[in-house]
């Protein structure tokens, strides 16, 4: 849907029925999300655009292809209002294979993990990959990177000067995930990004978990339009009363729908108008087992939302929140032809998917062989990180033997780490991890060849009895993270990833147990979604066998560098106190013996 | 509400309660249009921006001003979704005096009449006038001028090259009133304006009266977002099913609300979500007698719309349609402090008005003396038009004596002229107007010094028995229009306007009966609204006394150059067939005697 004079002329003629449609969808029942009506209607399509809805008999020419939709409900393609597709470890191509058959035809994304590992050059390459895929990405320019912590290291630093350039790109639809603390701290790059967005008429997307009262007011005064992260329905209600659009997140690791939807089902049904959905982070396994946005629609219906309302939340509401409703979110003339063929509004099973005018998926699968693009060195260069030895993962202190009281980051949820004080043995000047006390070592190694940073700290909750695991995918910086009960195994895990251009690995006793290569920027893979899911299962199983009983051992680990959520995190510059936004010394007390 | 880094810092601090509010509004009941809820809430304001809503006790400092709103409902300022304020003949300053006390704090306007008489230089001067007024204007760049008829003459031609420049101005919020026929004809300037709008992320506003079926589809394929002109509620329903935002127009001359609101009250209440209001053209008399947008809200309530819904239509719905809901349309932190103090939701009497954080009107009047700005020559230059003689208004034909069958444009409504064939006498080579048959002469004189064009044709329906009337305000070209039963009086009327720098005049028997000077561009006046209303009444009365029984004799005349609506119009290049979009010869047949 290019809006050049030439394209507009073609579309106008097609809309007027002067040139015949390329495709008509006949016999279906239209779910009109603009009017909350359901009625029989055919759809005429010219190239990638819907040109007529209703009686389209006059749009049919000799070359027009007819698609039979008898017995099917036609809904707009679903929009994921906030997702880091990279966190699924699926490349855009693989991600499209996973989610498009579920009915997700558009995502709003910062593609920020790609930027953190490959800068704008890598991003441009991903844009090309998107164009060749059946998925649309409405890109938001990250408000600033690194957004973990100003001192931490990424391949590319996103500043206000970068916003000055990229906000003018046609791919840019807003400012991505502006974290509350950066507004509160009056960060110059973040406010500069907002200043640019005002000039460029772009909305600013938010990220303000648990923002309430005065802090929420301050945040809103910066012009933030929407948020995708509320921890309870009362938070949702307050944000909406104060004018925000709300995305309810139902990710693989945080299940907020059941609680947040109460804002609509219990407090005020009118709120539904500005509520939409996102999945933020999903695993391939989850998508294969449960579905994607279609599953969120089903969950909403199960929670008591009327099917029409739930479908609106997954389509037009997101489109309006992001001001892309002129392109997607409804089946109307002039919009992109993203149309789902659904069995019933109640069960909401997506049986076929049309994107940009082409029927691309049927019965849960793409109906053609989508190939990943050849990739340049920008996205496939080796990890720029020196090989390690076991000494790199030994915590050295100023006493030879004795005990160290350390602050161990104790995982309490996928993103939440709380303080846990543990007393560990010191032998030969080294603080020893202790599997009996569930105190492991964790380290982040800078991997973009910028400074060779390496941090080291303590963590709890993973319960590995031996071995180590590592990942070069680790939002948001995507430095190399490794965790283990044993320094030699940690070194082995890291070295294996360096030698293989990135991935995720579980090792023990000097042996690699499972390995998932992630050759695309060290964070994603072009493997089939089912392959990735299978290998993820193997990785989890290996970690489980080493003693870990978390639902997603590696995912819980790879979120460790995220500093946006209290209380603790770790980046390449050190363990971070997420409230004070400073690094901290994990050694609380040393006792020489 | 400037969104520079510096301003953002101030606002964030004010929102967080770190610096005290300038003003708090206490004791009122909030009409929360975002959530359809009504509850007690105070409002804290910093400079022109709302920074907190709810309990604002922590925002009060020693210098904070408190405004008592006990017993009042607080609603957002009203937004007129489509208006040519100039057509009221009130300058921006006078218009603000008229409508702001009624609660209209924002208008969407092309300011196109100003552009047609004074170009971009005049427009910039008007922008400055807006800033000094309590009214906000969200400007849409006219899709093209002249939009009467390509060959007709205006002071400034708006082309796609102009769009390339002006769409980047911060005052620009979209493309104004894109008329359907120009889309259908695939006009290069119009499509170029849309191409630019896509690049600049601006919505395209429409004007598609009676567009249905395939022509509506073609129109929508050009990406038109909204429309303000539907002739019945079924047209409203079709446009909304096809994805448009609908503005219901209730102007001084066309009363569409009663019919159009049936789309909501009878067909589908859900449509209300994307319905809003506009007045398009209003007379000062009307505003003084009935009110402005507040009156439209009351009419909607009388028609069966719930008060909350009617208020949403006049506030947030327009703001969302025009994508300005981040600035206006709700009482939320981060929005401009445009707040109405209303007696009750049912009677909706606006008792006081705050705009941009200042209480500017109470009890139907501005509470301070708003002065019109000094004006440059751009907006006050004399009419660039040669003085006329009676011969200029004599229709000469190729026979000396006999009869002429002529096509007289017969007025059937403010914008509608139908064909009426009349047989007139020809004497001494001149076709004589005939008051017995109600066939008058009408002429449009180019008045910008560009080419000296002058057209002459016949019209019916005004029923003047003698004399003439003329106006230099005559949308959309604003050339000088004159109509009369007598060529000498027509010349007198025109010359009086030329000598006096523009205005409206009624003459008879060689004498000026009534004159309203319009020194601002020949189209508007800085007089008080009540003065203008009074003088309009005198003009109407004078025309009535000459025999005219139309409700607004001069307004019906000054719409004669509008070519957008079938069947006939007249511009400086001649009478126009609005369907074929060509000029036509009004002489159908000559019979020599």
How would you describe this structure to a colleague?
- The structure is a homodimer of 593-residue chains.
- The first copy, chain A, is an alpha/beta fold.
- Chain A contains 18 helices and 33 strands.
- In chain A, strands 20, 21, 22, 23, 24, 25, 26, 27, 28, 29 and 33 form an eleven-stranded mixed sheet that branches. Chain A has an eight-stranded parallel sheet with strand order 8-9-10-11-12-13-14-15. A seven-stranded mixed sheet of chain A has the order 3-2-7-16-17-18-19, with no helix packed on it.
- In chain A, strand 12, helix 7 and strand 13 form a beta-alpha-beta unit.
- In chain A, helix 11 crosses helix 17 and helix 12 runs antiparallel to helix 13.
- The first copy, chain A, is elongated.
- The model of chain A has no long low-confidence stretch (mean pLDDT 96).
- At the A-B interface, helix 1, strand 5, helix 6 and helix 7 of A face helix 1, strand 5, helix 6 and helix 7 of B.
Rg of chain A, please? 25 Å
Biggest sheet record of chain A: 11 strands, mixed
Biggest interface between protein chains, with counts per chain?
A-B, 67 and 67 residues
Give the % helix of chain A.
Answer: 25-40%
How many β strands of chain A by DSSP? 33
The dominant shape of chain A is elongated
Summarize the structure.
The structure is a homodimer of 593-residue chains. Chain A is an alpha/beta fold and 593 residues long.
List keywords for this structure.
593 residues, 27% strand, homodimer
Per-chain topology:
Two copies of one chain form a homodimer.
Chain A: H1 5-15, E1 23-26, E2 29-32, E3 37-40, E4 42-46, E5 49-54, E6 65-68, E7 73-76, E8 78-80, H2 92-99, E9 104-109, H3 112-131, E10 136-142, H4 160-166, E11 172-179, H5 180-184, H6 188-199, E12 204-207, H7 213-221, E13 224-227, H8 233-241, E14 245-249, H9 257-260, H10 262-267, E15 275-278, H11 284-290, H12 293-302, H13 307-314, H14 316-321, E16 339-342, E17 350-355, E18 358-362, E19 365-366, H15 377-380, E20 395-396, E21 402-411, E22 417-427, E23 430-431, E24 440-445, E25 457-460, E26 468-471, E27 480-484, H16 487-499, E28 503-508, E29 511-517, H17 529-545, H18 553-558, E30 568-571, E31 574-577, E32 582-583, E33 587-592
Parallel strand pairs in A: 1-6, 2-7, 8-9, 9-10, 10-11, 11-12, 12-13, 13-14, 14-15, 21-25
Antiparallel strand pairs in A: 1-4, 2-3, 4-5, 7-16, 16-17, 17-18, 18-19, 20-23, 21-22, 21-33, 22-23, 24-25, 24-27, 26-27, 26-28, 28-29, 30-31, 31-32
């Amino acid at each position: 849907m290019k809006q050049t004079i030439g394209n507009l002329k073609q579309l106008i003629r097609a809309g007027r029925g002067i040139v015949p449609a390329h495709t008509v969808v006949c016999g279906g029942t239209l779910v009109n999300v603009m009017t909350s009506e359901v009625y029989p209607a055919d759809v005429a399509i010219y190239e990638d655009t819907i040109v007529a809805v209703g009686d389209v008999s006059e749009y049919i020419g000799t070359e027009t292809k007819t698609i039979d939709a008898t017995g099917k409900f036609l809904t707009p393609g679903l929009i994921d209002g906030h997702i880091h597709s990279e966190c699924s470890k699926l490349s855009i191509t693989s991600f499209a294979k996973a989610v498009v058959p579920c009915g997700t035809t558009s995502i709003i994304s910062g593609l920020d993990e790609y930027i953190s590992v490959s800068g704008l050059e890598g991003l441009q390459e991903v844009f090309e990959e998107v164009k060749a895929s059946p998925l649309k990405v409405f890109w938001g320019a990250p408000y600033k990177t690194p957004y973990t912590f100003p001192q931490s290291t990424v391949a590319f630093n996103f500043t206000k000067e970068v916003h000055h350039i990229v906000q003018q790109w046609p791919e840019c639809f807003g400012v991505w995930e502006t974290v509350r603390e950066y507004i509160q701290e009056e960060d110059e790059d973040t406010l500069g990004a907002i200043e640019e967005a005002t000039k460029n008429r772009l909305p600013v997307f938010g990220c303000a978990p648990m923002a309430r009262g005065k802090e929420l007011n301050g945040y809103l005064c910066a012009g933030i339009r929407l948020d995708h992260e509320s921890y309870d329905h009362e938070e949702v209600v307050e944000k909406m009363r104060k004018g925000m659009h709300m995305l309810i997140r139902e990710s693989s690791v945080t299940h907020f729908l059941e609680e947040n939807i109460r804002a609509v089902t219990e407090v005020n049904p009118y709120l539904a108008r500005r509520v939409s959905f996102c999945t933020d982070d999903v695993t391939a396994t989850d998508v294969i087992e449960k579905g994607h946005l279609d599953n969120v629609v089903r969950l909403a219906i199960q929670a008591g939302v009327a099917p029409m309302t739930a479908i609106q939340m997954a389509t037009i509401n997101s489109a309006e929140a992001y001001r892309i409703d002129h392109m997607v979110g409804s089946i109307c003339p002039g919009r992109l032809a993203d149309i789902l063929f659904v069995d019933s509004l109640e069960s909401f099973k997506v049986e076929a998917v049309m994107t940009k005018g082409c029927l691309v998926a049927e019965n849960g699968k793409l109906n053609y062989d989508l190939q990943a693009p050849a990739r340049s060195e920008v996205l496939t260069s080796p990890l720029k990180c020196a090989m390690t030895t076991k000494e790199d993962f030994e915590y050295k202190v100023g006493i030879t033997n004795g005990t160290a009281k350390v602050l161990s980051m104790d995982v309490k949820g996928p993103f939440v780490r709380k303080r846990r004080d543990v007393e560990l043995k010191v032998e030969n000047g080294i603080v020893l991890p202790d599997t009996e006390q569930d105190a492991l070592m964790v380290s982040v190694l800078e991997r973009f060849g910028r400074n060779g940073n390496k941090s080291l700290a303590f963590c709890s909750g993973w319960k590995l009895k031996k071995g180590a695991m590592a990942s070069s995918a680790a939002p948001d910086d995507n430095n190399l993270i490794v965790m283990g009960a044993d320094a030699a195994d940690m070194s082995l895990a890291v070295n294996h990833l360096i030698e293989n251009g990135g991935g995720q690995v579980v090792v023990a006793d000097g042996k690699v147990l499972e390995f998932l290569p992630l050759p695309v920027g060290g964070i994603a893979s072009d493997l089939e979604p089912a392959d990735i899911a299978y290998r993820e299962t193997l990785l989890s199983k290996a970690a489980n066998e080493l003693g870990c009983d978390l639902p997603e051992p590696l995912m819980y680990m790879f979120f460790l560098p995220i500093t946006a959520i209290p209380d603790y995190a770790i980046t390449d510059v050190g363990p971070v106190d997420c409230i004070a936004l400073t690094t901290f010394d994990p050694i609380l007390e040393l006792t020489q013996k």
